[in-house]
Amino acid sequence: MSASSIRLPAHESRTKIRLMAQHNPSIREEALALLRRGVTNRAVAEHLNVPRGTVGWWLHEDRKQRGVKYTQPTDCPICTGRDFDRIAYAYLLGLYLGDGHIISKPKQHHLSIFCGDAWPGLIIEAEAAMRQVMPAPRTGRRQRSGCVEVKSFTKHWTCVFPQHGPGKKHERRIALEPWQQEIVDAHPRDFVRGLIHSDGCRNMNWTTRIVGGERKRYEYPRYWFTNVSDDIRQLYTDTLDELGVEWKHCTRAGNKYNISVARRASVALMDAHVGPKH
Fold first, then answer.
1. Is the four-CA dihedral 181, 185, 188, 192 of positive or negative sign?
2. Residue 11: which pLDDT band, with cuts at 50, 70 and 90?
3. Contacts (Cβ under 8 Å, ≥6 apart) of 253
4. What's the predicted TM-score (pTM) here?
5. pLDDT (0 to 100) of residue 153
6. What is the mean pLDDT of residues 118-133?
7. Alpha-carbon gap, residue 106 to 40, rounded angstroms
8. In terms of DSSP H, where are the helices of 67-100?
9. Which CATH number fits domain 77-273: 3.40.50.1000, 3.10.28.10, 3.40.50.720, 3.40.50.740?
């Protein structure tokens, strides 16, 4: 954390400024010369053997004296217009619509994807997808009860996922922007994969049949997806239709929010392009 972002009591602040002023003015000028050339605070601090907080304070004061307004650098593909990894985005969009959440308020901005402890591979893939879409923001993990919260810290996730808004996803309309739909149309398998890895699974179901006068039990694999949002389920089933995957609505224990893929050929398609969590 830079010195400019720390609020201290008045007497402590005066002490801090006095200590910073003890450095040789030539060192301060050398630091500012490097900073103005774009060298990072950390590199300057290590080069001159000066605390990073002191370097940050010098930079803050220098900008203020020169009337320079600081704008946080970003690699947001929406704001900068740069190209980005669309396959990773399609997958991350599926994760976000399923188990994702964005915090966007003063001094607190991040995207969170919640991944069950049972799927360590999913945790790695979620973090990798965040970095592929926006490499610059810091990422991190936080252990929760039964799951890991994977985070990426930048206010620009609201640009990348305009579906963010107040309240729960199923309580508001969820619709893709035209540029998002183009990505999903180009990479439908990755989008479905993200949805399954968040709100779905591959499991074994069973049924019984009468064969030769005897009731026999049969087991078969299926892909199961559950989401309370009608809009998100529609996005899922529309994309399955594009892939030629047969599906059906299933109600279990009064829950009407389930989509099942159980026909052998369709399960084979899902296995080839989605696969189970890992």
1. positive
2. very low
3. none
4. 0.75
5. 94
6. 96
7. 25
8. 77-80, 86-99
9. 3.10.28.10
